[in-house]
Specification:
The chain is an alpha/beta fold. The protein contains ten helices and 15 strands. It is 30% helix and 19% strand. The strands form four sheets. A seven-stranded parallel beta sheet has the order 4-10-9-8-7-6-5. The structure holds NADPH dihydro-nicotinamide-adenine-dinucleotide phosphate and the ligand Nc1nc2c(ncn2[C@@H]2O[C@H](COP(=O)(O)O)[C@@H](O)[C@H]2O)c(=O)[nH]1. The site of ligand LQESDW3C has 24 residues, from strand 10. It comes from Roseateles hydrophilus.
Length: 325
Amino acid sequence: MEIFDYDNILLLPRKCRVDSRADCDTSVQFGPHRFKLPVVPANMKTVVDEPITELLARSGHFYVMHRFDLDSLAYARDMRGKGLIVSLSVGVKPADYALVDQLAAEGVGADYLTIDIAHGHAESVQRMIAHIKQRLPDTFVIAGNVGTPEGVIDLENWGADATKVGVGPGKVCITRLKTGFGTGGWQLSALKWCARVATKPIVADGGIRHHGDIAKSVRFGASMVMIGSLFAGHEESPGQTVEVDGKRYKEYYGSASDFNKGEYRHVEGKRILEPVKGRFADTLREMQEDLQSSISYAGGTQLTDLKKVNYVILGGENAGEHLFM
Ligand SMILES: NC(=O)C1=CN([C@@H]2O[C@H](COP(=O)(O)OP(=O)(O)OC[C@H]3O[C@@H](n4cnc5c(N)ncnc54)[C@H](OP(=O)(O)O)[C@@H]3O)[C@@H](O)[C@H]2O)C=CC1
Ligand SMILES: Nc1nc2c(ncn2[C@@H]2O[C@H](COP(=O)(O)O)[C@@H](O)[C@H]2O)c(=O)[nH]1
């Protein structure tokens, strides 16, 4: 198997078919809705909050609200009341089962539910998928995280509508250091490996450091790309603002860090400071422009055209040109 990651792959241009990058369509159908970009900010406390998810929903972007220190039912009622998409995260504990029951009993429902646990290839996730499908049969269920084809196959067979791939590639992740496991350092080839067996959409989760990595993710099989660090550090970001030597930063911490958990138990995440980098909406616009440019370099007009391009691996023992996937 070829091992590579975002920083040692480049996609190869094909003859351009548009006169303007504005003619390239970055939108994607994901579950019951179409979104402007194949991008979703990570469901983490220092990345999204109520105002940011509302901004995303109102502007035609996908969002997944986090599940920490939040009254998810009240949040869902509020979004529903505003006529916006409801997209929540759940875990696998009794309170998460109760939330699903309440969403069903009140008729609030959810358009998307993301089962978000560290080791998503687990019977606890199988049971939660079954519960959601029984109580909320119309809800689109994203389950994860996994890092192997076996994980994708099982989650799909258990009823997930999409799987989330990425164990340990995140910027504030320390899973590989603490446990010795994960896809950190080879996330892009893990995505390729998983996409080969997937029959439903894949969300590539973690490791995105540049806008061009979104096109690379789509090339290797992602329908949606979850991004944490690139979205943390905006003026509106929920993390605390910290000033160091006159420069402003926002804190960005892992969901499995002691900062999120409130205790040092099973910690697999850390806290870093991200330089403050302007407004959220401006980054979304720049991402769209960059992705339009990627599609034009692919010789295409739409997102799926990215899947057809060749690529080169730079350096290392797998180096070379690859004409076919
Ligand atoms: N994408 C990634 O690489 C990672 C992401 N995270 C993020 O951190 C957050 C917290 O994750 P998580 O700790 O799973 O959430 P929770 O603390 O909600 O744990 C969910 C349940 O899964 C159990 N569990 C967690 N890890 C394992 C494991 N390795 N083996 C067996 N059971 C397990 C927990 O029990 P118990 O605590 O008793 O074991 C608990 O019952 C999530 O948002 C997750 O996405 C965390 C690590 C890696
Ligand atoms: N191992 C851990 N992974 C975590 C933790 N909190 C979040 N995450 C994952 O990271 C991505 C975001 O990655 P980024 O590279 O874009 O910053 C996020 O979606 C989760 O899957 C954690 O504490 N430990």
